Amino acid sequence: MTAHPSTRPTRRLVRRGLAGVAAVAATVLALPAPAAQAACPAGDQCTALPDVNARKVVLAATLDPWRTDDVKTPGASTSVLRVERALVADGLLASTYADGYWGTTTTAAWGRYEKSIGQNGIHTRNGLPSPAELRKFGAGRFDVVKSYDVGGRVTVAKAPAGNSDDGTEVVNRRTLDMFLEAQRNMVRRGDVGKDMTITQGSYCDASCAPESFGTHDGGGIIDVRIIDTNATGVAKRLAALREVGFAAWERSNHIHAVALNDYQMAWAVHGVGGAPAPIVDDGWTGYCQVYEWVYKGDGLGHCDQRVPSTSAQRTVVTWEDYLAAKG
């Protein structure tokens, strides 16, 4: 279509217009470039939705239910509240319990959600919200940040090439990385007892850990031999395991270690009473091993010595905390 003569620009105006555009372009180019946005961390969701911190939620789900008060896990309450409000919206939790405290009622509600999406394994229907479950549940409602992965299952090589006593121990990748780092630290320091052997792994059943009452049925659990060292060596092993994120304590003939925040741990490790996982109930009430270790010094109780959050307690350091501090 031909432009009307009165609207057709002259050659001079065209040149002037081009010059003006060039001047504006030069001005724009002279401005400092905007700072590049930080990349979204692997496994996280980075949109405009509210954030839910996966690490804090798992820790709260492990510790909150068994205290005698409702003091919230530090740094977790906002994320927990967002998850609880979503549970309320889906009819899985009464609104009165949406308070930022992951108590026994919230645990049961999450167990119902896990069941609703087909989770029915010892290490998946366990009342602990894995990052993957949180992402599925929070779609369109919240973003999951500070995500992490326990990794696939690996078989520990038999000693002396590896750290298994017979080559049958299975653990997840995160647990093995933690154990090997603890041993590297001991070797670096020249600690007594630095050569550690795993005598019992994870993902077991009655055929490989009948005396463990289900605590080895999920992920994040190992037993470490102690009869090959002295008292100093045992103490050094305990310190090294705790340093990288294990709740670890001495038993009669081994160290029992629980990888803190392993969302595949069996209900028997951190639960009590009616479990959300399909385990046999023979009158035994559970162990609450992480809670007992944090507040009572070891994990040998049966969730029957509950204390308020003001009681003396161990400092909780997870594997992700350790890695962040290490840089």
From TrEMBL:
| Domain of life of the native organism | Bacteria
Signal peptide: which range, if any? Answer: 1-38
Q: Is Signal one of the keywords?
A: yes
Among InterPro entries, the record links this protein to: TAT_signal
Q: Which UniProt keywords apply?
A: Signal
- PROSITE patterns per record: TAT
Protein name from the UniProt record: Peptidoglycan-binding protein
